[in-house]
Protein: histidine kinase
Organism: Marinicrinis lubricantis
Amino acid sequence: AMVYAKKQGKNRFHLLDQEHYEHLNQKSELELELYRAVERGELGAYYHPQICLETGKVIAIEVLLRWDHPQKGVIGPNLFIPLAEENGLIVPIGEHVIRQACLQMKKWLDEGSPLQFISVNISARQFLQSDVLLTVKEALKESGLPAHFLELEITESVMIEVERTERILHDLKELGVRISLDDFGTGYSSLYYLKRLPIDRLKIDRSFVQDSVNDLSDANIVRAIIAVARSLKLEVIAEGVESKEHLTFLQQYLCDQVQGYFFGEPFPAEQMKEAVDEIEQM
Ligand code: C2E
Ligand code: CA
Ligand code: CA
Ligand code: CA
């Protein structure tokens, strides 16, 4: 830490500088490990069901990336996706996730699964920096999955380049892929974009859902998003459903679909059938 330690007065070192150095050090170590993880195939997909409120059936599934670190155990995406976005690794990682999702969905369909689609998260950097359209086309072709079984979850932050985003989304739509707007309400939301972009579904961010039962303004935001979706003829799903109270609230306001730990945490592909059976018997 000496290199970065700045002398303050006589023999005093600035503590923050040392912390900063350690932070940098940790980060580059993690970065190196992330490169290796990609090569060694330590990044894997977990799956989280999306449930139709009217029927109680699992209609779709979201792919959530996990890093199975040999020493540190399972690491969540919030710890490495931002890093991967900074150093560009998000492009190969993202391609891998899309291909994997298409292959897995095709496999489930071939086994007779009634799932309607699989949702893949695409971060804004990934969406704007890589050729998502080409990746999707190739993944669909390779897997033999018809396009309407694939959904991309994008966030409002892609709106910083609204014209490009509009073009890419229209191309994806033409291909037949579904688009949902993730973390809705937390970003650049403009009703104008909703009208202009070919979006199938809004995903209400879990921060609103979680406080909806004891915070009136969050409850009102959730109701307003459901109303906007209704009037624009979009589907709407709430994420972060953790309790019976959340569920009852969302049922009362006629949300289409729900997702959350109330129905269980994300699981590896092998547990799919078991997890779906359990949810549908609730
Ligand atoms: P997200 O897209 O908003 O995904 C939902 C996150 O909320 C997931 O966290 C999920 O496990 C968690 N979640 C779902 N229901 C509940 C609940 O009831 N309670 C609580 N406390 N949490 C719930 P996760 O898996 O840690 O993912 C975090 C974020 O990382 C995702 O947020 C997404 O933005 C990103 N991410 C995950 N996988 C990928 C990927 O393959 N590509 C990209 N670009 N981003 C990904
Ligand atoms: Ca998502
Ligand atoms: Ca979210
Ligand atoms: Ca997100």
